[in-house]
Task: structure prediction
Amino acid sequence: MSKNAILDQVFPVRSKAIDALRAPQKAGEPLREVAAEAKHVALSYGRAAAAARWETFAESLEIVGLLLEWLNAVAAAELEADRFLRAARKRVKDLLARKFEDRYCIRLIEILNAVDEEPTPQSVELIRTAICAEPMPVAIYADPEPERPDWARNSKHRIEEPADIAVAFVEFKIDGTVAERLQHLRPGEMHDLDIAVRVSRWPDKATSLVLSPMSIEPPSSYNLPVFWFDRPTGDPPFLFQQRGRMALHMAQNLKARPFEFIYTAEFLPPASDQPVSIAGQRTLRLNGSKSDQPITGYPAIDRKILSLRDRLRVEPLIPEQDLDDLLQVLVPLGNLMGQAVQGALFPTVISEAEFQLAVREFLRRDPALGVNVEEQAHSAGGRTDLSYRGIRIELKSETKVRLLPDDCKRYAGQAASYAVGTNRRVAVLCVLDCSPKQTGPFPMEDGLFVFPFDTGTSHVYIVACLVQGNIPKPSSHSR
Amino acid sequence: MVSKNEFQRTIRTGELNLSTWELVRNWCSHARLDKFGGIGLIEAQTGLPIGHHSIKCDHAGAAGMSTWDLRDAALDFHDRNCVDCKLRKPQGFPNLSTLVKERDDKRAAQIKMQALEQAKQADALKLRKAQRSKLRDSLGPVAGAILDHIEEFDEHRTREHSERIRESARLAPEHFEPQLTEYVLELAEREDWFADTALSVLKNTLADRKRVARLALVSIANSAAIQSASQVLLENLVDIEASGIVRALPPIIELARPHEDILPFSARAAEEPALLQALWQHYRRQVEEGLHDLLTSRNIHHVDTAARGVLAISEKHGNVFTPFVRTMVAKFSRARFLLDDFDDDDLYGSRNLHNLLKACSAAFNASPRDIDTVLQDMIQGSDRQSRERCYEIYRLALNGPDRERETVRAESESHRLAFQRILWAATSEDGDGVLNTAHDILRGRPRELEAIARVEFDGLLGALLVWDDRLRKQDEAEQPSDMLQVMERQNKRSSILALMQSAVEWASIVAKGEPRLIQKIVDLLDKVPEGRDNLRGVLLGSVEHLGETVDGLKLLLPHLYHGLVGSSVLVRSYAASAVGELSSRNVPPLVYEAFAVLLWDQYVAVHKSAVHALRFFHLPEAFRGRAAQALLNLIRYYSERAGDDRFVVECVSLLASELHRLGRAKSEVAKYLVQVLLKADPLYVRSELRWLSHSLGETEGFVDLLLLHLPLVRVDHNSTDEALELLEALPAEAVQARRAEIEAIGSKLATDAPWLAAHTIEILTRANCWAEARQVAQAGVDAGESTVRNQARRLYCQSMAISVRFEEAIGECRLTDLAQISKEWDDNVLERQEHDADVEKRNSRSSFPGSL
Result:
């Protein structure tokens, strides 16, 4: 009913204390426990008159507890048994020294005064019973010390400004060159890692600044340095440079995300009012793919696929699953591009339909793709040539004019439309150049590239695979 | 005092509340309208439910809210209690469901709007991300990382993200490549949330300064990034496009001199006038145009803004007022005609043009003669209210904005001129406003205006004579028959009389210690013609200050004594009051003897003034007995009359002190005084209760007086609990002697003020009155029907009853009963937990008022 009405917390303690006084126990411990609770109640009453009553009552419980301990010690012939009695007498003396005006307090002290005479088990029992039989006035309200409300404490003259944030602007160099957004790093080799840090302010009590790497990778898979900088002299901003050594111990799978490390900064000794925020190259993203591990069987095409993967990974609009599916289908297509040059797979002029049939069979032959390669799926009101898990593959066959990689971009519109129609951001454009040629083929990996196609609002990415066919025999050039 | 507008608003609220109550009544016949606080004049006259009201019901919990707009309380009550109620008794249509539907529709519309706005923002964010994605390809790795920071900030608008970008520009400006800088500018031009960060970044880059200055000006105009933009503009003053200044001026003024809330619950922003002052210096024509546009607006906020702007500029450029003076004075004095949203009665609200008044008064202080000419021109051709507002300008110029000023020198032209104008106006103008303005100036002591009062001494005395003349003419005029006119006339009389008393006080303060000036006052007293009793009486008041010196007292004493024993009732009354103000040193006993006689004076005005004066000094011992007898005589007479309880209590208080001093607090006379107090209106006794407890605390019957006042604690929400505190301090014996009476009052209170009944239980148990305490608690348990509404009170009283019975059982050595009593406590706790859960459930459905 009132915020200061504390009867609820008081009555259970009173009831418990009376029970403890009435219980026929010999030990003083239960009484001392309930005395602690009674003291807490006394504190809760604050400035109210009941506080003194409860304080005296709590003292009485402790004194009776001490007397019981004394009786036990005497009965057990313990050494120094009288120490309990002396303590009880001292407590009573202290109570007497205080000038109480409250009738209940005065009555309790009168009862306890018997301790000063030579107590006996009977007189202790009498004290206990008498305290137990003394009714305590019911006090319902506490009178706590007034506290200033929050709004008064935060007066207009004392609004605390939040602590200034120290910013550490970080730049990394790996093996002497600025770290790229996605840096390729050969696993199993040691590399230099140079750090340049510019710090905006240095907290008064800080002695050092530590930059340390954080990662979800298992610690056994990498080794990155921790950089320590001691307190500088002069005025901010401060510039620090240091070199460390780094290594990746494990290679990563083609589809695996790159290693990601975030460098965090902390002033030492740590304190809550020294926030430090890292700006600049906060994140090191390292690609640890092994370039000598075959993917398509054609190393140059493999490297191209990896760079294409890295390029697309940093595009925020391309979901990870789409990128995985794209890479899956690029592996056999890359192999096809290689075979087309190496083994002259398409020696004559063929139509787009024939090329589609050949590519379909080639892709379905790959056990990783198989049944997921679809033909003539509907998208954006048209029919796509081939599809792999929603990644559209637009096929073209050029029979008349020789194509160079950039010439493929003229076919991009259709592939982009299919991609948008399937709610994807990537599509594959696979073009067979089977036109009659007088010159030899260009390097096969040059035919594999990615370019953005502007749809008007944002980009769709087209991966072009230019398959070279109708390649003249090398001997024909000698004629 | 309620203004016409306020009156109409109040009536409208009452009508709305009445229609809301009809809806509630139709909704359920169980519902009751409950009023919080007292009934005001308008409510009493119209019968409309005006003020804070709440809805109550026996089947609802006690929690709820009382609101000014009953719709808020009704909806809250519905949400808490009616949603799952099975006991509703509908009465008809339309009912509360109309309001509920209206509220729910509004909420649904708000939610829809919020969803639309969120979707719009999400699309915009998507577009910005796409643009950044394109841009990233053309940036180096470090610049790309900075672009990532911008993206993070776009997604999470926190200080840390903003700080990261700002510090990056400061620490590594070389990485802000041209495309990135261009993007920062573009983004800030489109998005206000980025303006602050961008302006900070662009300071460290090689961006086009004109474009940056334009961005800063536009940001300020949009009230975004005001601090940073201000800094940028100050650093690029020459690059500012002058055409944008007028639009940006209001926020620049806000920065220079922030609007000040009348009740400052939060810290006021610091004043930063540098930009406004610099713009005045470099782009004066544009700033002047902007200020003029604002000043001539019919919107009060615009005019207030302009005034603050002028004040901020005046700190550095004292000549700023010149082009605006006439407009400012006209706008302030004729605000009723020139502003659409002006409310003359909103004295402490945002509509009182306080800043414009400050600006006008500052202009007056800067150039008193010129502004005085403008003001006098304005006064000549204006209506009464406009004239009164002109005098407000003089008042502020004289008093200063905050009454904490340094001493004003006598040579101060502005102060002297303003003083003369106000004094003259108060003697010639009829309106209450001017009298109030003059009274505001002359109230209290002259303090920092003492030098001005000294040089205008003759003017003060002259005004005194004119005021007395006005008073006399008014008294001689025929009494109006209309009650309101009578009240108005009395108010004016009081105002003029108060002005005369103030003028005498000012004159006597400055004359003190200057024989020449004292002599002027005494001469005036000498020359007061017969029959001008008011003037003579008011002049006797000068004895308070002039009597502090021997010379002054010597000159005035004959007049004072003559006044005390003279034939004029009015002068005797003034003289009696003057004795109360007199310093007791050097006063001949004859004066006190004459004073003591006034306590027996047959005229009411005289003996009431004498009793009132008696509170402020001690009569010599020789006259005390006679004075005590006079007081007793007055008490006997006035206690039998109705309507004089205030005076009776004043007399009782004085006589009780005297009895206490003589050690006769238990005498028959003291008992009689307590009986008189028991019959007096508690309104007047309550304020004296603690003081009376010192004198009559031990007198028989005083406990009855405290008991009489105990129930009043609950109806007076503003008073302290003195009766309660005094009762709690009573010795146990006194409580035991009145145990039955305390129990009776406690039991009565337990029904509707159990928190107060709890105090009686504390008082009774402290004196071992266990049975009575138990009865009080039990009365709370048994009172009323067992409804949901009464449940909280019942459980609360039950817990008190159990506690009392527990201690009672201990006292009576019935220790075997304790276990059963403790079990009852546990059962009660369980019941209350269930009740609390129900209350919690109801409260969870409550929402913040103001949904309609």
